[in-house]
Design brief:
Bound molecules: pyridoxal-5'-phosphate
CATH topology of the largest domain: Aspartate Aminotransferase, domain 2
Low-confidence stretches: none
Mean pLDDT: 97
Distance between the termini: 54 Å
CATH class of the largest domain: Alpha Beta
CATH superfamily of the largest domain: Type I PLP-dependent aspartate aminotransferase-like (Major domain)
Strand content: 15-25%
Number of strands: 12
Number of helices: 13
CATH architecture of the largest domain: 3-Layer(aba) Sandwich
Strand order of the largest sheet: 2-8-7-6-5-3-4
Largest sheet: 7 strands, mixed
Helix content: 40-55%
Amino acid sequence: MKELNRIATTFKESIFSEISRTANEFQAINLSQGFPNFHAPEWLLELARESVNENHHNQYSPSSGNNGLVHELSEYYKRFYNLDYQTNEITVTAGCTEALYCAATALLNPGDEVLLFEPFYDSYLAISQLAGAKAKFITLEKPEFKINASAIEKNITNKTKVIFLNNPHNPTGRVFSHEELNIIAGLAIKHDLFVISDEVYEHLVFDGKRHTPIATLEGMKERTFTLSSLGKTFGVTGWKIGWACGPEVMTKALRNIHQFNVFCANHPFQFAAAKALQKIDQYIPEFKKIYEDKKNLFVNSLEKSELKIIKPEGTYFAMAELPAGKSDVDFCLELIKEKGVAAIPPSAFYQESNEGSKMLRFCFAKDNDTLNRAIERLI
Ligand SMILES: Cc1ncc(COP(=O)(O)O)c(C=O)c1O
């Protein structure tokens, strides 16, 4: 047999699959997976049912997205962030995951370099490598996980092209401050870099904080892909409706990839997504309250445990520092087998630093009964 793709064959089964398998085997309470175990709002599910019943919704949409949804997204960015994305600057994708792939492939050539803040969402490295780019890593040091200008600048070379930003940040729960976003913006402008900004947790921000898309900073809209999706905000990760917004010239390249990748995102759920966005202003306060309560319940209760929780500012994840001398994968497997609770060993989100092996990541997007049972076992 001839050689398969050299990069694809280096990707391994992730630790997440091993954890899920072991969690199932020991019937552990699963706080590892990044999605809710409770129902999405009934009105939203009804929108999907109604949409599927319309026969013509069940065929392809335009490749760049259903016109109604693209229009609603344009309105949404204006209303929420005063960001003016025209319809020719918006592409509907198969979740943010496909938006990330298309954005990276649209920008990168073999030999280019990308900057990743570690811990990082694992797809950023894989898609950069598939595009032939080399990744450089900037460790956000625990427990503050702060962005630091000199740590970024010393990794910039004349080959650097893209900075991946995830804000609010999985897995640390950081919501980067204006000052930190200004550091990234300043360096991106100074060195003429693109930013791929993954904002899927944009509405999961706590304690009165507000999310700021980096594209709203002066000089940034013209060099940024702003990506997000419906999955986290509406609790429907399986719908896989996401989007990418960026200047027309960048969007054209992204759409070229998207048309030969999936052609279009699933159409009936795009109609439902458009209607959901019409209701998002009323929905968000209630959504935020549900998650803020879950965050408080989990974080405050775990103060009594041997795990030192790092309070998240956003997302539905919380990192916890392990007792000295423990390492994440072993601790995780022990926790499943002995206490019946599954978490994620975050070393999987690091490439250079070994800080990840001293922590665990918990997902608190679970119904209160599940959370309370897990807390009882953890404290
Ligand atoms: C940071 C981040 N980006 C993207 C995604 C995937 O988004 P989607 O489900 O819309 O593809 C996730 C899912 O966990 C995520 O945590």
